[in-house]
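Structure tokens please, single chain.
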Amino acid sequence: MKILQFPLAKITLWFVFGILLFPSLKTTPPIAFILTVSGFCLVLLCYIFKSKIAFYSSLFGIAVLLNSFFIGLSSASIHKENYSTNHFSKYLNEVENGFNATILLTEKLKNTQKNYRYVAEFQSIQKKKVNGKIIFNITKKEKYISLPIGSILFIKGVYYKNKKPFNPNQFDYGNYLEHKEIYGQVYSKTNDVKIIGSQSSLRYYFSNYREKLITNLKKTSLSENSLTVVVALLLGQKHDMSPVIMKEYQAAGAVHILAVSGLHVGIIMYFLLFLLKPMPNTKRANWIKVILIILTLWAFALLAGLSPSIVRSATMFSFLTVGMNIKRTVNIYHTLLVSMLLILLISPSFIYDIGFQLSYLAVFFILLLQPILKSIWKPKNKILNYFWDIITVSTAAQIGVMPLSIYYFHQFPGLFFLTNMIVLPLLSVIMAIGILVLVLSVIGTVPHFLVQILDLLLKIMNNFIHTIASFDSFTFQNIPFTKEMLWLFYLMIVTLIFWIKKPNFKRISLALMCVILLQVVFIYQKKEVNKSAEGIVFNQKKGSIISERIGNNVSLFANDSIRKNIHENVTFQSYLVGNFSDLKNKNNIPDLLFINSKKIVVIDSTGIYNPTINPDILIITQSPKLNLERLLLTLKPKVIIADGSNFKTYSKRWEETCRKQKIPFHNTHEKGFYKF
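Here you go.
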């Protein structure tokens, strides 16, 4: 492959390995620094002697790659915030009530039903200077106070550490936050929050200016759904978007247009080139163009929130703009690799961001695969050629992101090519009119007819997406896909592309080996599931869920409301997908269960139980009023489980009783699911 012939590709690969292996190696900054300096000295030594001694010449390449690995480790360790001696985690205990602190608001997040949410940085706790990022929550019960980004707040609050998933095969939100260097959440009431100052920076200015632009757009006559979509397209903010619309865009294979990335930056760049075309073609004027374009691209990136995908796009297009100006052929592979190196050197945690991963994979496979697809058919008609380009680019990108999308989301949109064929041409027009509306909303009144045109185009796009998403049979959902299958799938795709580019026996043999290996891993993992059996008590706040799995057949025991809507229950569906399993039957929760050789008694809100049964496990649900001490003497269970449907106060009281009786107690609300 052409890209692997570049030394920079190997250096980038080893640098990325250094970042990815850091969590396992947990190298401290001093050790990482010593390793990097040692590696640099080795590279220097090999370079000096490589022309004199053959051994050093062959060792030089190995030394460079090894040092790239050490630099990756160093970058990751330096940016690991909880290594700092002043990190807040060293001074703040979990569930510490009423502590005083000052924090700086750095980012607005999507609100929940109960809380307004922000990313914030600690400045002090109990007047002691500290640092570190947290999620800051303000309850919605009291009157909301406006909090601009950059505000410095004095707060009283409660702190909670990030928790592990409370149900099996669930998305690990705590791990996701830690990759972003966020190690906990603070909850405060409005009355316990006071603005005491503000901090100025370019990023905070653009963040607050973005909120003003959104307010200006809200004053226009755009319909609610059109407004949320245009805010996502132009300003990268999906906070207020309806979950239904988001789900439809995912099912139709068009969710990528809502994430501000290369498509949007590219449209803006070529729009700027068009506007600046009247400028004279002199060296000075050309450099003024370059500076104006780069400044505008990065201003847009700041305005859109500096998400990993837009940082990648702005970096790549900045290199592309400079290359075009100095009249040099820009090697797009080099641009891709240099942008990745620079971004990860500054912010190594971006490697774990889904948007960053999907963005680079999409561009990489467009460069690699699109020329092959385009060569299949070369239409002479310009219109046909335009739509053929859209199909080939979309297909190449979709093939590139497909394995990763299935791994994260367990679904695949079958009609993505049809969606992109219609949506992408429409998107260019929507963005052009949208930018014009945005500019006019700042400098004056927006003409009503312009808003109506934009609203009409957005409604057409939304209705088309809705129609495509309604074809359920073309959206493949709940696809089991493990990490091992992910890596093998990419290996299979790449080796097949190798073979298509240059067919020979060696390459087809390697591709077929990858296909066979992928099948072997899939069969092995299914076989392992088929050999096992388990019972799960899920953590469910409203209702109770107990399951029994024998091989890949799952029996569900739940109350009526959950059973009727079990296909919409994300918690349970994630368990089925993660275990390659199918739901075979749904039942009410009986008083007595036998799961995996365990005798289980279930006591619900009625508090009724059979005193003659001595169970292995006692499950308490729906907050019954019990004399637990008497019950323990009567039933003599070996383990007590209280699921998430119980009142917290009841569970605490039962836990204290079990502690006195020296009987194991498991509260799913605090410890998560119970597996037996």
